Amino acid sequence: MPNYLVVDSSILIFYDRKKLLEDFLREKKKENITVVIPRAIASEVVDEPKAFAEKIKQSAPELANRIFDSVERISAAVDQGLIRVEAVNYGRYSKVVDNVRKHLSRLDSTPEYAVKKGDPELVALVIQLYDEVKEKVFVATLDKGLLKALKPFIKEVEYEVIEKI
């Protein structure tokens, strides 16, 4: 069975900015680790930046081109199978998503609708993958709030946070 590493958008952006994304992903593949992101994270790192770059390409073409390049690199990694985009089973994990959204809303003192959709989906995906394989799921994020939201599930899900990336 494969080992899963669920990554947040912060990790993908971090490695992409350092021009190390493909190397990082290929290294994980060599280690037989499947890098997984929920669909909402894929939207955060591909769809939303692409739409933003389209809006600014006339007024800030250099920035728009950098964003388009980043989107292309991440999309290529998905197409090459270096990143697997996984759907969260909302029928089974909607309460998890809702509870994490509420928790993050309180942590950030923001309304629930302002919480990024990817963070609650990431927590739900960690639980979902664990439920499927009954093996430890690894998590990588630079978001401290997300780690706090994941912490209450330690009794139900075996996961490990990779802090040194």
Strand order of the largest sheet: 3-2-1-4-5
CATH topology annotation: Rossmann fold
Total DSSP helices:
7
Largest sheet: 5 strands, parallel
Tertiary shape: globular
* Total discrete domains: 1
Tell me what portion of residues adopts beta-strand conformation: 5-15%
Alpha-carbon distance between the two ends = 23 Å
Give the averaged pLDDT, no decimals: 89
As an assembly, this protein is single chain
CATH architecture: 3-Layer(aba) Sandwich
Overview of the molecule:
With 165 residues, this protein is α/β, with parallel strands linked by helices. It has one domain (3-161): 5'-nuclease (Rossmann fold), CATH 3.40.50. Helix content is 59%, strand content 13%. It is built from seven helices and five strands. It has helices at residues 9-17, 21-30, 39-56, 61-79, 90-108, 118-133, 144-150, and strands at residues 3-7, 33-38, 84-86, 137-140, 159-161. The chain has a five-stranded parallel β-sheet. Helix 7 links the parallel strand 4 and strand 5 (159-161). The model has no long low-confidence stretch (mean pLDDT 89).
Provide a quick synopsis of the model.
The chain is an alpha/beta fold. The chain has helices spanning 9-17, 21-30, 39-56, 61-79, 90-108, 118-133, 144-150; strands spanning 3-7, 33-38, 84-86, 137-140, 159-161.
Topology, please?
Elements: E1 3-7, H1 9-17, H2 21-30, E2 33-38, H3 39-56, H4 61-79, E3 84-86, H5 90-108, H6 118-133, E4 137-140, H7 144-150, E5 159-161
Parallel strand pairs: 1-2, 1-4, 2-3, 4-5
Helix pairs in contact: 3-4, 3-6, 5-6, 5-7
